[in-house]
Design a protein that fits this description.
Elements: E1 7-11, E2 15-18, E3 23-26, H1 39-79, H2 87-111, E4 121-122, H3 123-137, E5 142-148, E6 154-155, H4 159-175, E7 181-192, E8 206-215, H5 222-225, H6 245-255, E9 259-265, E10 269-279, E11 300-304, H7 308-321, E12 324-328, H8 331-341, E13 347-351, H9 359-369, E14 375-379, H10 384-394, E15 397-400, H11 405-417
Parallel strand pairs: 5-7, 11-12, 11-13, 13-14, 14-15
Antiparallel strand pairs: 1-2, 1-9, 2-3, 4-6, 6-10, 7-8, 8-10, 9-10
Length: 418
């Protein structure tokens, strides 16, 4: 392709099309002449599988460590007088731990086959949140413009995962404009009719919300464009990119049955267009964030966790909130305590991933003892399958690690009120 020519590709679950050459090739899955997966497809699948094993293996322990950091920071902060200058650095510690947890979730999001939540998500509210985040955090040399149509419908997909995907595209756009430039975010409802040139063969015609992220950066060379969604592929300098971001975006969009179109011209910039199926007949889920308010309580809580430092934070934190606390380091111990003292225990805070008897098994045993037991399940890593099994067992409250003392207090209040 001649230098300066704009290159364009459309990506979806089944095909990759190159309008410039009018060619069509299978991107997932690709097969050789014997009908077997191609080496390229096999390598891609193995990369995703390896990432999944690594991420799933370390996420629980990693988030337990972050829980200790965030938990004790929040506990120290609430013990200080309101005007104490240590409030701000302690809050920074908490926010940094949340950022590290977000990185762990990014690794998991690349490898998970099934999302925990498929929405729908309010497209207008989602884009508004992204714009607020980047407006506060991006360098002022990057001018941010947005053109969002009013009253956008809901879109299929998890709000948190879609937000992560759009933020990743915005960060890539910023990094492509080292000397400054313009970042444009667009959102509009579009109806794609059968035969529309924008519509990939594997996607149905219908209503889509198009979310565009356009920059005036360096652009992507044509020979690189077809590789950008391959896991671990990156053109960034060491320490500045992992090659995971666009692979994650690809997976998130495919989960919604949507598709991605990319156009780029070297020296002029790049535009990513996410086409996400619109949900016109379903209201968005409530997405009001927690207020962050500390809520004192009373009663007795049985805390079950195999990590001693997490157990220590929870015991001290709950005591600070006004609760009496019983602790157990295993599911077996928890069931033993509850069988003796269940009448005096108002709520059980139960870690899902423990050696020996799992949290889910312990939850079942506790329900055998008392079908009305009030339980909050907690974990640093839980797949959609595990959460689904927990819901089938009795629809308990769920608290994802790492969490602050404020978030714990609100979960306890919710469970007790219910």
């Amino acid at each position: 392709m001649a230098e300066g020519t704009r290159s364009s590709k459309t990506f979806d679950q089944g095909t990759v099309t190159d309008p410039a050459s009018e060619s069509l090739e299978q991107a997932k899955p690709q097969r050789n002449e014997n009908g077997e997966p191609s080496d390229k497809e096999t390598n891609r699948s193995q990369a995703l599988e390896t990432l999944g094993l690594l991420a799933g293996g370390v996420a629980h322990d990693f988030n337990n460590a972050l829980e200790v950091i965030m938990g004790f920071a929040s506990l120290a902060r609430v013990r200080l007088p309101a005007a104490d200058p240590l409030h701000e650095p302690l809050k920074i510690i908490e926010e940094s731990a949340k950022g590290a947890a977000s990185l762990a979730r990014s690794l998991l999001d690349v490898s998970r086959e099934n999302p925990d939540d498929m929405g729908p998500a309010d497209a207008g509210d989602l884009l508004g949140t992204v714009i607020r985040i980047i407006s506060r955090t991006f360098d002022r040399k990057v001018r941010i413009e947005h053109h969002i149509a009013p009253r956008l419908p809901c879109i299929r997909g998890s709000r948190s995962r879609l937000q992560l995907a759009i933020l990743n595209l915005c960060i890539n756009a910023r990094d492509a404009m080292q000397k400054g430039g313009t970042l444009v975010i667009e959102g509009q409802l579009q109806t794609l009719q059968p035969g529309d040139a924008r519509l990939p063969a594997a996607r149905a015609a219908g209503d889509y919300v198009r979310i565009g992220v356009r920059d005036t950066g360096v652009g992507i060379p044509a020979d690189i464009l077809e590789k950008i969604f391959v896991p671990l592929f990156t053109t960034k300098q060491p320490g500045r990119g992992t090659g995971l971001g666009l692979a994650m975006v690809d997976r998130i969009v495919r989960e919604t049955q949507g598709f991605i179109a990319v156009t780029s011209k070297q020296g002029e910039g790049t535009e990513f267009s996410l086409y996400l199926p619109a949900v016109l007949d379903q209201p968005p889920r409530a997405t009001s964030p927690a207020s962050g308010r500390m809520m004192a309580g009373k009663g007795r809580v049985l805390v079950v966790d195999d990590e001693p430092r997490v157990l220590q934070f929870l015991e001290k934190g709950l005591t600070r909130l006004g609760y009496e606390v019983e602790t157990a380091e295993s599911g077996n111990k928890a069931c033993e305590i509850y069988s003796r003292k269940g009448g005096d225990i108002d709520c059980v805070l139960l870690d899902l991933i423990m050696p020996g008897m799992s949290g889910l098994e312990a939850y079942g045993r506790l329900k055998d003892i008392n079908p009305g037991v009030k339980v909050i399940l907690s974990s640093g890593y839980s797949s959609g399958r595990i959460r689904g099994e927990a819901m089938e067992a009795g629809d308990p409250e769920f608290l994802e690690k790492p969490f602050t003392l404020e978030e714990l207090s609100q979960a306890l209040q919710k469970v007790q009120q219910n």
